[in-house]
Amino acid sequence: MLCYNKYMKHIIESYQEKLYESVIWNQYFPGMNVGALDIETTGLDPSKTRFILGCLYNCQTHELHQVLAENRQEECETLCEYLEEIAKVDVVITYNGRKFDMPFLAKRLEVLTKGGKIKDSRFRDILDRVYDLDLFVVVRGHSPIKSMVPNLRQKTIENYMGLWETRTDEISGADSVELYYRYEKTGDKEAEQKILLHNNDDVRQLTKLTRVLSKCDIHKAMYNMGFPAGRNLVTGKPSVKRNQLIIQGVQKPAAGGYIDYVGYALGSYPVETEFSSATREFRFSVPVIRDSGLTLIDLNAAGVHAEELERFPSCESGFLIIEDAKGPKHMEINHFTKAFIRKFQEEEL
Questions:
Q1: Of 347, 322, 317, 316, which is closest to residue 336 (Cα–Cα)?
Q2: Which residue among 41, 138, 152, 189 is least crowded, i.e. fewest CB within 10 A of its CB?
Q3: Residue 162 region by backbone torsions, left for phi larger than 0, else alpha for psi between -120 and 50, else beta
Q4: What is the C-alpha to C-alpha distance for residues 342 and 116, in angstroms, rounded to an integer?
Q5: Phi, psi at residue 169, to the nearest 5°?
Q6: Would you say the C-alpha torsion 253, 259, 265, 271 has a positive or negative sign?
Q7: DSSP 95
Q8: Widest CA span of the chain, in angstroms?
């Protein structure tokens, strides 16, 4: 389906692409709406170049949306239309999105807002709310694949995973820019189709590429990258300092706004808590026990039901080992974090 208005083209197509599914995936992203995202721009510097095409595959509706600016002057309306589609998902799958796609969108939104072309502040909340699962970051930092391939370009990883034959486009991102200039100047339909096909393939391939997660240490990746935890919270990388586990992260936009909260106990448990609406950050300092080279958490004292975590070999008699001589236990810390935040939100917020 092709939707026209006086500003741009919005193309909607249906596909039956499937995401990687596993028990571990469901532990970190249960019941969340997921999309795959990729953008095309006229350059790499968002302060000087333009957003011209965005693609989002919504894995719940099975609709692939492409929003195309027919010329660079239509960027504002095209960006707003694209953000409306992003608002319908909770998680976006990207490839290098944390370094390029999402910051580029944010900067162009900032530039257009400062220029008075966008006046609706909710668009900023859309980008702040969505969680970016960047497959490039996961593969680069948490998989042995990087030692088996010549580079970590998306197409290289697709080839490694046996997905190359499912691609139909034959151009690069740089080619796409040149084709866009031709399309903008002449309305060349062949150039337009090549741009759209390249962008379409990048996103559809991303959904297939999620199977690369089966070759990655997802627990370690989530420990380092952070993950959605509780209502409107995303964790950052935790740390153990002295006799405390530091759990920190950011608040996501919510109907009730950002909260301010300072506390020094959760019931009788001496955990320090701080939520700031100014910085949009949160922080818990959870007491830990250090004994014989191990770092443990007393689950009963923390008020976390031990049965939630007792399936782990490192949980015994109500104590959870979160660190040993080999370093932090990523899975255990992540799952304790989720359970503790859930308890805090149920009792305090």
A1: 322
A2: 189
A3: left
A4: 40
A5: -85, 155
A6: positive
A7: S
A8: 73
Q: How far from 201 is each of 39, 90, 120, 157, 170, CA to CA, in Å?
A: 12, 22, 32, 14, 10
pLDDT (0 to 100) of residue 2: 57
pLDDT of residue 121: 82
Tell me which amino acid residue 310 is: E
239 touches 45 (CB < 8 A): no
What is d(CA 28, CA 26) in angstroms, rounded to the nearest whole number?
5
Query: Residue 247 CA to chain centroid, in angstroms?
Result: 19
Give tens-digit pLDDT for 224-234: 999 999 899 99
Q: Which H or E run includes 72?
A: none
Q: At what angle do helices 135-142 and 218-225 cross, to 10 degrees?
A: 110
pLDDT the model gives residue 169? 65
Please enumerate in sequence order all residues whose Cβ is within 8 A of that of 88, keeping only pairs 6 or more positions apart, or say none: 33, 35, 58, 61
**pLDDT value of residue 174:** 78
Q: E strands within 258-300?
A: 261-263, 272-275, 281-287, 289-291, 294-298
Classify each residue of 2-30 as buried b or exposed e, where b means 16 or more C-beta atoms within 10 Å of its C-beta. Answer: eeeeebbbbbeeeeebebbeeebbebbbe
Which residues are within 8 A (CB) of 34 and not within 5 positions of it... i.e. 6 or more apart? 19, 59, 60, 89, 90, 91, 92, 93
Residues of the chain falling short of pLDDT 50: none
How far apart (Å, rounded) are the C-alpha atoms in residues 176 and 44?
A: 13
- pTM for this prediction: 0.94
Whether the CB-CB separation of 171 and 198 falls below 8 Å is answered with: yes
Distance (Å, rounded) from C-alpha 52 to C-alpha 75?
6
Per-residue pLDDT tens over the stretch 31-81 = 999 999 999 999 999 999 999 999 999 999 999 999 999 999 999 999 999
